[in-house]
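[audit] Reproducing an earlier prediction to check determinism. Same input, same settings, fresh worker. If the tokens differ from the archived copy the diff job will pick it up downstream; this log only records the rerun itself.
[audit] input (137 residues):
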Amino acid sequence: MPAETRDEAIRYTADIVLLTDDHVLLIERRWNPYAGSWALPGGHVDAGEASLQAAVRELKEETGITVLAKDLRQVGAFDAPGRDPRGRYVTVAYTATLPEPVTPTPLDDAADARWWPINALPPLAFDHADILTATTR
């Protein structure tokens, strides 16, 4: 007898791991969940938009930094149940490395944005520590 299936609402997001030497760019979240916590820049993929374009857009909207889509490399998809307390979220993570830090400007969903040393990170929201580990191994 086949197993019973159940439809589940799935939300689609994109995150970006922007690196320079031994630093990573993080934002301080302005809104819940995890308001006040540090996270990778990212957010929802808009209707008709690919995750790559969403990553470029979200980075610009949250930090004022522009990275071209051609300079991003896909890290992978992260879809573990429970990775977001709002429900089922699937994110595609991308990474790029800048030759030197660009000063971020916290915008949109970001209360703050700054470069953090990879070896001295604050606790990260969601599963962003796992995404960062997958990027830097």
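[audit] rerun output stored. Observation attached for the diff report: The chain has a mean pLDDT of 96.
[audit] end
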